[in-house]
Amino acid sequence: MSITIADLDVFSSSQQLSAGPVTVSVQVEGRRMKLSVSSPGSGGSSYWDRCSVDRCVGEAVNGGMCLNHLSRQDIHTYVDQILASYPRGALRVTGVSIDDTLKEALLSSQLFRSMPVAPHIQVMAAVLETDLDLSEKNFGSHLGLHGVVFDGALRLTNCGFLQGLNLTHCYQRAGGAGIDVSHARIAGDVRLDGSRSSQQPLNFLHTRFDSSVSAQGLTSGLNLSNATIGHELAIRNSAPQFLIFPEGTVGGGLMLDNSTFSFIDAKNLRASGASQIGPVTAGNRFDLTGARFEQRLSLRVTTDRLSLDDSHFYNGGVLRSEGAGQVSIRGLRTEGPLVIQGSFDGKTSLQSLENTDAGELTLADLDLTGCVFEHAHRLDALRLEATNQLALYKGRRRIHDEELLKAKADRHSALKIAALYRALRQSYEIQGNEPGAADFYYGEMEMRRLGTDRTSAEGFLIRLYWVVSGYGLRASRPLGFLVALWVAAAILFEKLGLQAHHGGWLRAAVDAAQSAYPSTQTIPYATTVGTITSLFLRVAAPALAALAIIGLRSRVKR
């Protein structure tokens, strides 16, 4: 069964990607056929002379007829001619329907019985109507499939490709079993431009690529599980269904520029040469759990969840997760300065620093209201930018660990959280952010108050410090106590503190105020009660004034 002019719609397609349209079409130009393809960043046209049979669009290869109209013997003769002209000749399977008849004729020819399969093979604008199994064959020259429509499966498992492989602008229709190039070894470049599928991904499981893998305008899913790529993986201006690359290795760049995936699974990836990823959109998740990056990395991704758990960055980098998503970094390690940045609106949340090495870590533009800091390493060296969001509680910022204390309500847990606050305070003090450190100091003292026995001397002093001055951070409290002390002293002076002929409220108020200054002389007409009150004022008033000044200073010093 051949393909006629009336069947050309099977090759026509148009998809609109964010980077631009991807189109494929086959047109008749007199006795010639034209295959036109375009996608963001790539495109072009291919031509062939069509079959002499009326309205057939297959390429004329022998006696003016296409492979669909040649007999089995004529096909073998055609293949023998190609073999005789090697390395100049190439097998072209163009504009035809690859049904069981044509498949058997080609596979029984000398071409596919030789090892390796020597000539270049080009399949273009063809329809694969049946399953084609070429497993365990070695291809000595390039294998290219361009504009091919798949109704059946193509199996290239355990194959060797001494040169490259192209699967460009191929279409796997619904119900097709897909393209499987798993457990293969490919020496040359692999191109996947414009390939699309309604269901099945392109499968390259456990495949070794000695060179690079690239794609422009790709919309098919891509499964590279346990694959090894010697040079770079470059997917640009594409919208694949997904990218699956767990346990994979890439020796060069990992470029996913201006592409949109429903998700990316790259758990335990080993990337020795990747220095920049993105901008890329990864739908509901971008999973880099256990990944290893040897170069300083710049990552920019928009996703609902970015997982960096147990990942290792040997030279640090800048990782930016945009959008209202979550970032998970449990167990992350970095040996160089690493910045993790959320969206500028602060809607990107970080959930936990558990078992994370925070010594070289900087967090910026992140929602930390639900972040747990417990069990983080080198927390005192963590750099928290002022653009992060922390929960507000009674006018101060507090960490989520303190909120979780309500469920535990024990002294030991309170003291552990005090240590977290102390480490964060030290981090802010190193940065010179005194007001920010003040909030963490208040949290540290609160946890010490809750974690200390109130009947002990330390517990009493901490509680007195809290009541009188809010741990030296609430200027209003010592000022209030100072005013109350002055009023109480004035009343005491009026009633009991001054000799009878020196009484009166105004005189008592003035004497109480003067007694608050240590440099002033004692009141000569004071009674014993007045003298004791004056001495107490000389000690208590300056102390309260000093606490008020310290409270104000902690809020304004930078």
Write out key terms for the chains shown.
single chain; 558 residues; alpha/beta; ten-stranded parallel sheet; 10 helices; 47 strands
Give a description of the structure.
With 558 residues, this protein is α/β, with parallel strands linked by helices. It has a domain at 476-556. 27% of the residues lie in helices and 27% in strands. The protein is built from 10 helices and 47 strands. The strands form 7 sheets. It has an 11-stranded parallel β-sheet with strand order 9-13-17-21-24-27-31-34-37-40-43, with no helix packed on it. A hairpin with a 2-residue loop joins strand 1 (13-17) and strand 2 (20-29). Helix 8 packs across helix 9. The longest helix has 29 residues, at 528-556. The radius of gyration is 38 Å and the shape is rod-shaped. The model has no long low-confidence stretch (mean pLDDT 87).
Mean pLDDT across the residues is: 87
Query: CA-to-CA gap between the ends?
Result: 82 Å
Q: What's the number of helices?
A: 10
The amount of helix comes to 25-40%
Q: What is the CA-atom radius of gyration, in angstroms?
A: 38 Å
Low-confidence stretches: none
- Beta percentage is 25-35%
Shape: rod-shaped
Number of strands: 47
Largest sheet: 11 strands, parallel
Structural class: alpha/beta
Biggest sheet, spatial arrangement of strands: 9-13-17-21-24-27-31-34-37-40-43
Topology:
Blueprint (H helix, E strand, L loop, with lengths): L12 E5 L2 E10 L2 E8 L2 E8 L22 H13 L5 E5 L2 E2 L1 H8 L2 H4 L6 E5 L2 E2 L3 E2 L4 E2 L3 E4 L2 E2 L3 E2 L4 E2 L3 E4 L2 E2 L6 E2 L4 E2 L3 E2 L4 E2 L4 E2 L4 E2 L3 E4 L5 E2 L4 E2 L3 E4 L6 E2 L4 E2 L3 E2 L3 E2 L2 E3 L4 E2 L4 E6 L3 E3 L4 E2 L3 E6 L2 E3 L4 E2 L3 E6 L3 E3 L4 E2 L3 E4 L7 E2 L10 E4 L18 E2 L6 E3 L2 E3 L1 H9 L2 H21 L2 H18 L5 H13 L6 H22 L7 H11 L12 H29 L2
Parallel strand pairs: 5-7, 6-8, 7-11, 8-12, 9-13, 10-14, 11-15, 12-16, 13-17, 14-18, 15-19, 16-20, 17-21, 18-22, 19-23, 21-24, 22-25, 23-26, 24-27, 25-28, 26-29, 27-31, 28-32, 30-33, 31-34, 32-35, 33-36, 34-37, 35-38, 36-39, 37-40, 38-41, 39-42, 40-43, 42-44, 44-45
Antiparallel strand pairs: 1-2, 2-3, 3-4, 46-47
